[in-house]
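This is your field. Please look over both lines of this record.
***
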Amino acid sequence: MGTTNVKAYGTESADAPLEQMGIQRRSLTVKDIEIDILYCGVCHSDLHTARNDWGFTTYPAVPGHEIVGKVTSIGSEVTKLKVGDFAAVGCLVDSCHTCDNCKQDLEQYCSNGWVGTYNAPDKHLGGMTLGGYSEKIVVDEHFVLKVPGNLDLAATAPLLCAGITTWSPLRHWKVGKGSKVAVVGLGGLGHMGIKLAKGLGAEVTLFSRSPGKEKDAFDLGADAVIISTDDNQMNSVNGKFDLIIDTVPYIHDVNPYVGTLNTNGTLVLVGYLGPLDPFLNTVPMIMGRKSVAGSLIGGIAETQEMLDFCGEHNIVSEIELIKMQDINEAYERMLKSDVRYRFVIDMASLKG
């Protein structure tokens, strides 16, 4: 298979900064779409992968899975998009297509292992997939999404991970008009959770550990803010919520939130991976048929549904646009939660 050389930003080891490097993209197969990347969002997963926080990074690593760009070339059998269209790619670039989950448009739970946009086995070129911190990407048309024409392209990029990660549980647990939804944490995922839940007609509350987020939360569409360290405030929402989306990306005590679920309510974890500490107390769960669940991104059909919904309701992320060359500084700021609410790379800075 032929290849094309493109510029990218990546790292050769866990303790090395990201820097410019050359990578290869495959020549188009009949079902492939080549995308000139215009914008790429910066996700916590990018940082975790670059620094091998999860212990399974293969180097060199090129992160980036919130990709928006323009179609520059298509394979002979592509029908989904044409040259010149705006397109998007999220966290998935392949799956088996044949397992029960794939057949139900749940590619993110592919029984034979979905292929991530970066740091996953690349069945075309060998080695590992390389992500959106690059000039171009070549992706099977099934995993390419259409961008509604009215949306700001840069602010659309984070919808491909932060957006779908919160949209999928909102849809699975059938949130709609009259639903009472709470969001834990006001970051890249949390701010999208508020916007999307509000767009679906829910009454939305933000849980925050510290005062000072109220104005931002209300500006995003929240109806209420509860300070989770204040016992009186927590007691005031005891038994209230149908669904709580917990976006906090580090270990924390989820037990106080379980008590705020109503009968049959669900707390869904979308930000943190790993064992819970302190342990989950099952008493309030058993006494109210409450659930603690997890959810991972979303399938391709569901992601397109979300983009179309965002187009109809003019929902995009709140972003800070950065140059590719500033990515290492952006990572340090992200660790301090010093971003409102998602960094997006202007890839023109790499092409210059």
User: Anything to note?
Assistant: The chain is about 25% helix and 25% strand. Residues 11 and 18 are 5 Å apart (CA to CA). Residues 3-161+318-351 form a domain with the Quinone Oxidoreductase; Chain A, domain 1 fold (CATH 3.90.180.10). The mean pLDDT is 97.
